[in-house]
Amino acid sequence: MKTKIKVWLFILAVGLLSQCKKEPLAKVTIPDDNFLNALIEQGVDSNGDGIITPFEAYKVTFLDVSGESISDLTGIEAFVNLDWLLCSNNQLTTLDVSNNTALIILYCSNNQLTTLDVSNNYALDELDCSNNQLTTLDVSNNTALIKLECSNNQLTTLDVSNNTALYELFCHNNQLTSLDVSNNNLSALDCSNNQLTSLDVSNTHFYYPLDCSNNQLTTLDVSNTDLGQLICSNNQLTTLDVSNNTRLHRLDCSNNQLTSLDISNNTALEMLALRDMPP
């Protein structure tokens, strides 16, 4: 009797093992061959079987797939522990990082993105989404953001009022009509080539150039003392007060409507450009 039981148990075990062998190995769905090949080349496929398993994706914290001719990043949602995602210089039209909540750095510039949702990425420190086709960008949940590059898009509005840690902002070559940086202690700002009519940067402390050229500015408040370089050319300014900017060493206010400019306090000034001014 015991022998028969052992035989039946053996048969059952063999059956279960054979059934297990028929079950396909769990894998991450990655329809874009260029994305899959880039992952394999970077060693994400740790066992060399040509597929990416959820566990293999789970272990990855840094991923650079820039310039790999990728048009679809489906599968990135499995990389839940990613700190860094670099996917610039591809052909992406969509990018879903809603599941990548550990992201600190996201570089997705030079693609064809029309939308980008980073509302779940609360830990994001740096975002570079420049040179895309974005018409809107919501960074209100990204309160840890230190650096934002969103230049060369089609943005008409940009709200950075919640981004109090923001240190560098590059939003040039858009269609912005207003920009409020009163809550941001910026060290660098390039908002050139927009449609701004006014700009108040009196609360900021710039260590790098402030470039607000090629807008429609009629007023510009730069009454902070740290400003070293100011480029405000090609606007409609009729007055400009730089009396508080004692550290100013470069000033370009060409092609405005200024009839006078007092630089008596700007003793550190090394370069002054006043081209194409009213007589």
UniProtKB/TrEMBL annotation:
InterPro entries, per the entry: CDIRP, LRR_dom_sf
GO molecular function: signaling adaptor activity
Gene3D superfamilies: Ribonuclease Inhibitor
Listed SUPFAM superfamilies: L domain-like
UniProt keywords, alphabetically: Leucine-rich repeat, Repeat
Pfam families tied to this protein: LRR_EndoS
Keyword Iron: no
Name listed for the protein in its UniProt record: Uncharacterized protein
Annotated source species: marine sediment metagenome
